[in-house]
Amino acid sequence: MSGIDFTRWPEDAARRYREAGCWLGLPMTDILARQCRDNGDGIAIACGERQVTYRELDARSTRLAHALALRGLARGDTALVQLPNVAEFHIVFFALLKIGVAPVNALFSHQRLELTAYARQLQPRLVIGAGVHPLFADGAFAATLHAEVPGLAHVLVLGAPAGATELADLLMEEGGTAVLAPSPASEVAFFQLSGGSTGTPKLIPRTHDDYYYSVRRSAEICRLDTTTRFLCALPAGHNFLLSSPGALGVFHAGGTVVLAPSPEPLGCFALIERHGVTMAALVPSAVALWLQAAPGRRAQLASVRLLQVGGASFAEALARRVPEELGCALQQVFGMAEGLVNYTRLDDPEDKVYTTQGRPMSPFDEVRVVDLDGQDVPDGAEGLLLTRGPYTFRGYYRAPEHNAQVFDTEGYYATGDLVRRGVDGYLTVVGRVKDQINRGGEKIAAEEVENLLLRHPRVLQAALVSVPHPLLGEMSCACIVARPGGGTAADVTDALRPPLLRKYLREQGVAEFKLPDRFRMLDTLPLTAVGKTDKVALRAVVAGLETNQA
Ligand code: J2J
């Protein structure tokens, strides 16, 4: 057994998923083993000037797996990984799977606070970072991690500074002979990151069985094959880019993943032209930038057949422009790292593709749309989205209290999304009830930022809310009530100037995308009947202030 504890599916559900062929009892390393056998010379990854064949991806991940096994890493261990969009991301991912070490892939934008929070929860034996990230540019952060995580045995850095262990050296190491064994398919393969709505970021255990199913089903729906050339221009570890169908879907089908450092259009267009990219996955804000950049550059995009858009609400007006202005079909994807993924299908009528976020990928996905009392609402009416199914998790890692809040007794997970479901089962996302800001697809848990602001000596109360943004969809606004005393009112205001607050938050080590875009000083925060901050009212107050300013 892997030894990583997680909430399992009830036995009857597990049996059903096995009997239906959703869960194959195979580890995800099977993806690579099959390609290696059938398609060894196929290009798995294009990364800058490098091309990695399936055989090389397999060989390199095996070599690294051996090197790690030699250093004592073993099944049941966990790892914290933070790499940019480079081939090593996928090499490391498979290497860890091959020895049953379950990684969490932090976003490259994450900083000290996020990585430390993940490390505290996971207690990893291994940390892998990149020297191009400020946290791993010297040994200071690694030293603090060692202090936080007593069992941390190895920190490996790609492009290591002097004194640190170079990941590339282990990738070259020859001579491992041990038999490699992934964790059993029904056990935790790795952890996904939750977008979060609470003070501490949560981890989502994903098993081989459940994740491999979501990958196969996604690849089928998106009709991937060996001719697929997929542009990965969002963080490679994000659920969308890993599994919907993402890189794993592409590997499963024997196609090529073309890695891009960011969705910035000109760089992406050049990669598309150079590699004959057939498919890309973007968040809506990136599509807007592509639409702006496309006039006069359409020829560069000629090979693209499908653009997937997901992660945040995609305005219908923008969606309608995609085929005409980018010259490819559109697929809307509404997914979550916790599980459930919805797709519009490639043969859906146009209106459905423009106006809905698709329907669940699996016939075994169970979806309920309910009112605040938990009663099912009729089709077409707005309600809270609950779901359970063969690839939707049953509990955050070591978070029993939070789990008690978001799962009902039947194992349905409350997604926090507000949707409408049509008679045909297609979902339209209309809002959310979770306390989260979706900043162009990047999720910010309001409570996490509020807690940081509350540590500031001059802050009495803090609340983070969303405000509309023309490109990002939403941006964040921190509403602050100052702590009186300690100087004149002018002193207090001076200490709480936005640049100073941002500097303060940066010093706390939080990711840049979580820094509030706006700050508003208020005398009081509106409260609900039970005395909590009334965010609906607060959003209205902030919107009023925005309008007054405009
Ligand atoms: C509106 N809101 C959306 C959409 C996600 C595929 C695609 C996206 C994600 C993802 C993913 C949305 N329209 N099309 O994991 O596999 C919001 C919802 C949802 C939350 C999940 C995948 N697509 N959202 O975005 O875990 O609020 O996953 O609950 O990052 O993003 O965020 P995340």
UniProtKB/TrEMBL annotation:
InterPro entries: AMP-bd_C, AMP-bd_C_sf, AMP-binding_CS, AMP-dep_synth/lig_dom, ANL_N_sf, ATP-dep_AMP-bd_enzyme, DHB_AMP_lig. Pathway: Siderophore biosynthesis. Keywords: Ligase, Nucleotidyltransferase, Transferase. Residues 33-397 form the AMP-dependent synthetase/ligase domain. Its EC number is 2.7.7.58. Residues 448-532 form the AMP-binding enzyme C-terminal domain. One of its GO terms (molecular function) is 2,3-dihydroxybenzoate--[aryl-carrier protein] ligase. Pfam families: AMP-binding, AMP-binding_C. GO terms for biological process: siderophore biosynthetic process. NCBIfam families: DHB_AMP_lig, PRK10946.1. This is (2,3-dihydroxybenzoyl)adenylate synthase. It comes from Pseudoduganella buxea.
